[in-house]
Amino acid sequence: MHTTWSPSSWKSKPAAQAVSYPDQQHLSRVLSKISTLPPLVTASEIERLRYQLGAVERNEAFLLHAGDCAESFDACTNENISAKIGLILSFSLILIWGARLPVVRIGRIAGQYAKPRSSGTEKIGDREVTSFRGDNINGLDPNDRTPDPERLLSAYFHSTTTLNYVRALLTSGFASLRHPRDWSLSHVRSPALRAEFETITEGLSDALDFSRTIGVDSGRESTSFEQGGGRSVLGEVDFYTSHEGLMLDYEQSLTRQFPVPASVNHGGKTTAFYNTSAHFLWIGDRTRQLDGAHVEYFRGIRNPIGIKVGPTMGNEELVQLLDIVNPDKESGRVTLITRYGAGKIEAHLAGHIDIVQKSGHPVIWICDPMHGNTLTSSSGLKTRNFGTIISELTSCIRIHSTNESRLGGVSLEFTGELNDEGFSVTECLGGSMELSEEQLGLRYQSFCDPRLNFEQSLDVAFLVSNHFRK
Ligand code: PEP
Ligand code: MN
């Protein structure tokens, strides 16, 4: 039996990956300041996402969840934000075109700062120092590893300014399907990939001209997919934000009670607690203990949530977790983000699908082919092999279809970031650009997990889009 939930009830449970601050009073001062600051997102935006995720669950839309492993305060620039949004838009355009389905876009953006770590300390040179836990906790500089509460406040403001710019970009025509070249092709070097993308944009331009000519051009995406026919959340296309809900003190300070919109059925209740720091939050693979603080916090918020599901998740444990976070089996509430690794997916996914089907829990299944496939290159850089990523993704699609299930989306770590000379990052091996181990060091910019670059991401987009082609 669960006790009463409140935004702080997680405090009575053990929190994995907890950060210990040397000055608790300083932390309390910062948290009480954050709790007076305005929400980043609204209850109606969160409800809208839940509604659209319901469509993904019914196979009427596809979910793209993507962005950096971790954002950094220094990377909060015009160029990086627009490159990231541009890549998400290009990727989703390829999917919409191939699968003829609306795409729900959720960025790992505007708050994805905190990182779980497998060890509390790490070796830098010959020193053993506290591990880097993300810009909202401590610094990458090995001399700046003491957790500083001011970084939480800075994370709030960096998230706000990122989201402000994303909203501004999307309401200023940046996402317009009439000008996809503005946000994409300049990055693509591979002639074959360029040609494939140009075929889509030309086809699209013809389709838009045709609909304008016959007078059915609303200038917007399909309205049947929208709730209440209102304006899109962030302008011309919908776009939502997400991060791992790791730092519960921070999440609590942005958890606010609001009336539930009249159009929404929330078991007869008129108010709910919304985490207003992002539209969507997920529980990481290291913090999903059934009796732990994170699961306790997540069960009480109204936002749609993700749960990372790795090879150590037991079948019964998965259903128990769903029973806790979604006792009323509400649609659009839970997305299971599977991340077993290419070599382990065969042993786990079918069993997980089977037990969830038997439990009657409605879920969205999405594939994260990144986190089970990380390796260290001979030069010591953390990397991932494009072929292994594709292998997990194709196994995932196949296992779902042989088990009367369907893959509802993908969760990727990618970046459209370019260096000063306009080159993509070199963090993952392979892809159509055939990135080799010797080339990894050229423009390796991630301070966390290796990300697919622009070309490698489009390779994945074409693969998925071809699979779902109608
Ligand atoms: C992540 O998504 O960056 C992450 C740390 O994932 P996981 O919890 O699946 O390891
Ligand atoms: Mn990661």
UniProtKB/TrEMBL annotation:
Pathway(s) where this gene product acts: Metabolic intermediate biosynthesis; chorismate biosynthesis; chorismate from D-erythrose 4-phosphate and phosphoenolpyruvate: step 1/7
Catalytically driven reaction(s): D-erythrose 4-phosphate + phosphoenolpyruvate + H2O = 7-phospho-2-dehydro-3-deoxy-D-arabino-heptonate + phosphate
GO BP term, pick one: amino acid biosynthetic process
Residues reported to bind phosphoenolpyruvate: R108, K308, R339
Enzymatic class: transferase
Designated name of the protein: Phospho-2-dehydro-3-deoxyheptonate aldolase
GO molecular function terms listed in the Swiss-Prot or TrEMBL record: 3-deoxy-7-phosphoheptulonate synthase activity
Cofactor requirements of the protein: Mn(2+); Co(2+); Cd(2+)
EC number in record: 2.5.1.54
Cofactor binding description: Binds 1 divalent cation per subunit. The enzyme is active with manganese, cobalt or cadmium ions.
This protein's UniProt keywords: Amino-acid biosynthesis, Aromatic amino acid biosynthesis, Cadmium, Cobalt, Manganese, Transferase
Organism: Piloderma croceum (strain F 1598)
